[in-house]
Specification:
0% strand; 173 residues; mainly alpha
């Protein structure tokens, strides 16, 4: 699904809510095949395995990165390329998600300066952790990560390299 999404981001005119719907559809498929539980922490799906996550990519977060890169690339080349300048002008006139990506990200993640890939990654990860801190059970798992005696990386090795099914992994975490 992600390889198909990688191809169509920026080509099809999808907005942010449609990318969220794609993530929901992927989660429904995971539920159907018992790889994820309904009451489980959906934010854990999108965290790296070394941080006790499931290592999946979010269509919403991936599209934000790709649209940001595409917009910045078109903007940089618009001074030397009339085609890129025309694309930027048409997108701006139509007020598409691509044209408004910087403003969208600034509002969504409360970024004080224009976003780049590094600040966007940090903001997305911070948003995941802030959502986890709201949940009663899941915040206990990540609260222990601040303890010096606990190694999240070593604790997650058995998840990444163990011989357990996705269903067992979900229930153990």
């Amino acid at each position: 699904a992600m390889s198909l999404l990688n191809y169509y981001v920026g080509v099809l005119r999808l907005d942010a809510t449609q990318y969220e719907e794609l993530d929901n559809a992927v989660r429904q498929i995971l539920l159907k095949h018992h790889a994820h539980y309904q009451p489980a922490c959906k934010e854990r799906l999108y965290q790296p395995r070394k941080e006790l996550g499931r290592g999946l990519h979010s269509a919403e977060y991936r599209s934000e990165h790709m649209l940001l890169l595409l917009h910045d690339t078109l903007k940089q080349g618009s001074a030397t390329s009339t085609r890129r300048a025309a694309i930027i002008a048409v997108e701006r006139k139509a007020k598409t998600h691509l044209a408004l990506i910087h403003e969208f990200l600034a509002v969504k993640y409360s970024l004080p300066e224009p976003a780049n890939c590094a600040t966007l990654t940090v903001a997305q990860r911070a948003r995941l952790y802030s959502e986890i801190r709201i949940k009663v059970l899941h915040k206990k798992l990540y609260k222990a990560a601040g303890n010096e005696a606990v190694s999240v990386r070593d604790s997650s090795l058995w998840l990444a390299h163990g011989n357990i099914s996705p269903r067992e992994e979900a229930s153990l975490c």
